[in-house]
Every structure is written in structure tokens, then in C-alpha cells.
Design a protein that fits this description.
It is built from 12 helices and 13 strands. It has 343 residues and is α/β, with parallel strands linked by helices. Strands 8-9-7-10-13-12-11 form a 7-stranded mixed β-sheet. It binds NADPH dihydro-nicotinamide-adenine-dinucleotide phosphate (NDP) and N-acetyl-L-glutamyl 5-phosphate. It catalyses: N-acetyl-L-glutamate 5-semialdehyde + phosphate + NADP(+) = N-acetyl-L-glutamyl 5-phosphate + NADPH + H(+).
């Protein structure tokens, strides 16, 4: 059994990790932490857990707790994860769901996150946890930087196209997210009355996922890629749908472009490339670990790609468990949800 610790278990990604890990046949959840609710039974904090576990939430004390587990999931705010990593490192592997180890360029990280990075050498050691692309490196990693939710929905469809240099390195992506993407603490921008019945773009031209996406796409292309990324907030709880606009040579057909993505992901258990003429919808992925992709050629040179994920599953905790499976030599499908909650 893989002994697992979950830091930040009362957060949205932490609760999703508990949901997934509790059904995973190879996992034993050893502990779960909360900063504010330590000492409280999980079933009292979240009654959905009544009758399923007697686990008590613990204050995070990594010096001691890391010794009890094989891997620690960090579902913590940006900047907090890096405080815990040094204590975990000698004892257990780390899968960080936050952004502290995703961006290799530290100046960029510090600019977009407004934080001073305390562990530059660990950033260089960290492996970007997109299994479909970095599987080999993930196998032997000590620390995995689980990708951001928006980046997951954008990098997966674009990677094969940029790797093959079949599209121009100038891309536009509009992404729409449910509100769980903002974490459990409501703000003036995210509470019910602000969201319900409305829809808006936000952080136009300045979202912190832009440099993460750009770094990964440029590495795929082997040169600089420009991306205009605009996130939107949907009045729903879960899910991200990204609409991505790319340009190819007029001689490239819809079928050829589709074939490049389809061939790349043909044997991947968690990426589904839809037949031409079909497009993903959130309802076909919510609650599952799938990333679904559809594509259409709309004029001589423009192609529109649509991708859909559940931000808490393939966009966070499902992907983290997929990474854990790779780390411990378990089949990547094991323990991960493939059924959606539909209708
Ligand atoms: N939500 C999403 O869709 C995604 C989130 N992420 C990233 O995953 C991480 C967690 O996100 P999410 O679950 O949404 O966040 P939440 O705000 O929902 O939860 C944060 C968790 O961290 C705990 N916490 C807060 N401050 C501290 C601290 N100083 N020390 C220890 N524990 C602390 C909280 O504990 P308590 O409140 O009990 O004290 C809570 O359990 C973030 O880095 C986020 O950016 C990544 C991909 C998708
Ligand atoms: C809707 C919403 O607010 N989304 C978040 C991103 C969510 C996310 O998962 O970002 P990280 O993985 O980098 O934490 C935002 O725009 O900041």
C-alpha cells in the first residue's frame, strides 16, 4: 500500500484528494491536515464523511508527519508549500498542487505571485506533473509540480501541434472556469450574489497562469510561443472549458491536424480526442479525470480547438493521483474516476 498524507484536506483540492484516495485500492490515507480545524473529526467538518472514517484533522507538523508516509500531497496556498517541503524531503515524495515549483524562471514566478522564492534549487529539481508529456521524468522525481488547472486544459491539446511545428507560435485561448477554481474561501468577487446569473472575463492579459502556459508551450515548440490567455468565471461550481484559436498552413487539412493530436494521445487513458464534428462539453467530464478535445478548421488557416476538464480532478487532484500512480509503479488508471455525474 502507498501511505499518503494530505496537507490542506479541508480545501477543495484536499477534499477531492480524499474522495479519490478513499476509493484507491493501493492507497492508505495516514493523515490529513487543516490549519483551522485541527482536532476535529473529518466527518464533523464535512458530514459527507460521516460513517466513512473516524479520521481526525491534524495541525501540519511535517517534521514528524512526513516520516509516517511515502508521499505528501500539498493542497496549500501558494507560498505555503515551499515552507513545508524541506521537512518532507528526507522522508517522502512531494506532489505539490500549488504553483511554487511549476515555473522554472524564478523572476517570472516572483513577479506574477508577488512572493520571494525560498527554494530555487528545488524548483530546478521539480518535474512538471503533466503525465502525458513528462511520464518518464515523473517516474523518478522526488517532487512533482502539479500543473495549474487552466494550463492543463490548454497545454494538453496544443503540445502535439507545437511539437510537430504544424501551427504558428501565436495562440489565443479563452478559458471558462467554475468557481471552485478560486478555492473555498469566498471573496467579494466569488461569493454567490456576485457570480450567480453573471459571467465575466477577469485578469485580462495578467493572469498568473499565462507564464506557466507560455513556458511549457515554448519548450514544446523549441522556441518562443506567444499566447493571449483570457480566463472567465462561470456561475457553476466545477469545470473548465477552453476555446483555443490557432493558425496552420492553408495546405493542412482538418483531418491532418486532428490526426496529429489523435495519434499522440491514442494510448492515453485520460485524454479523449473526439471524432471530427463532435466537441467536448463540461457535462461529459465533470467528476472524471478525463481531458476531452475537439477540433474544427473554420477557414483557410484558422482552427478552433475545444478542451474540457474538471478543474478539481484532471485540473488538480485527479492529475495528482495519476502522478502518484506513476511514481509508485501503479497503472495510471487505478483509483481514478472515469464515470461522470450525468444527468
Ligand atoms: N481549486 C482548484 O481548482 C485548483 C487549485 N489548485 C491549487 O491547489 C492549492 C489548494 O487549492 P484549494 O484546495 O482550491 O484551496 P482552498 O483555499 O480551498 O484550501 C486551502 C487549504 O490549505 C489550508 N491552509 C491555508 N493556509 C494554510 C497554512 N498557512 N498552513 C497550512 N495549511 C493552510 C486550508 O486549511 P484550513 O482552511 O482548514 O485552515 C485548506 O485546507 C492552491 O495552491 C491552488 O492554487 C490547483 C489546481 C486547481
Ligand atoms: C476560478 C479561479 O479563480 N481560478 C483560479 C485558478 C485556479 C487554479 O487552479 O490555479 P492554480 O492551480 O494555479 O492554483 C484563478 O484564476 O486564480
Amino acid at each position: 500500500m502507498i501511505r499518503v498524507g494530505i496537507a490542506g484536506a479541508t480545501g477543495y483540492t484536499g477534499l477531492e484528494l480524499l474522495r479519490i484516495c478513499s476509493h484507491h485500492p493501493e492507497v492508505e490515507i495516514i493523515w490529513a491536515t487543516s490549519d483551522s480545524y485541527s482536532g476535529i473529526e473529518l466527518g464533523n467538518y464535512c458530514p459527507a464523511w460521516q460513517g466513512r472514517t473516524c479520521m481526525v484533522l491534524e495541525k501540519p507538523d511535517m517534521e514528524e508527519m512526513a516520516r509516517e508516509v511515502d508521499v505528501v500531497f500539498l493542497g496549500l496556498p501558494h507560498g505555503v508549500s515551499m515552507d513545508y517541503v524541506p521537512a518532507i524531503f528526507p522522508h517522502a515524495k512531494v506532489i505539490d498542487l500549488g504553483a511554487d515549483f511549476r515555473i522554472q524562471n524564478l523572476e517570472t514566478y516572483e513577479k506574477y505571485y508577488g512572493l520571494h522564492h525560498k527554494l530555487p534549487t528545488v524548483v530546478r529539481e521539480a518535474v512538471y506533473g503533466l503525465p502525458e508529456i513528462y511520464r518518464q521524468k515523473i517516474k523518478t522525481a522526488q517532487i512533482i509540480a502539479n500543473p495549474g488547472c487552466y494550463p492543463t486544459s490548454i497545454i494538453i491539446p496544443l503540445y502535439p501541434l507545437l511539437k510537430n511545428q504544424i501551427i504558428q507560435p501565436e495562440i489565443i485561448a479563452d478559458s471558462k472556469s467554475g468557481v471552485t477554481g478560486a478555492g473555498k474561501k469566498p471573496t467579494e468577487v466569488t461569493h454567490f450574489c456576485e457570480i450567480d446569473g453573471s459571467f465575466k472575463a477577469y485578469k485580462i492579459g495578467e493572469h498568473r497562469h499565462q507564464p506557466e502556459i507560455q513556458e511549457q508551450l515554448s519548450s514544446a515548440y523549441g522556441g518562443s510561443v506567444d499566447i493571449v490567455f483570457t480566463p472567465h468565471l462561470l456561475p457553476i461550481k466545477r469545470g473548465i472549458l477552453s476555446t483555443i484559436y490557432v493558425q496552420g498552413d492553408p495546405s493542412v487539412s482538418e483531418k491532418e491536424m486532428w490526426k496529429i493530436i489523435e495519434n499522440f494521445y491514442h494510448n492515453e487513458p485520460w485524454v479523449r480526442v473526439y471524432p471530427l464534428g463532435q466537441f467536448p462539453e463540461l457535462k461529459w467530464v465533470l467528476g472524471s479525470n478525463f481531458c476531452d478535445i475537439g477540433l474544427k478548421k473554420v477557414d483557410k488557416k484558422h482552427f478552433v480547438i475545444v478542451s474540457a476538464i474538471d478543474n478539481l480532478t484532471k485540473g488538480a487532484s485527479g492529475q495528482a493521483v495519476q502522478n502518484m500512480n506513476i511514481l509508485f509503479g501503479v497503472d495510471e488508471r487505478v483509483g481514478l474516476p472515469s464515470s461522470v455525474l450525468y444527468p
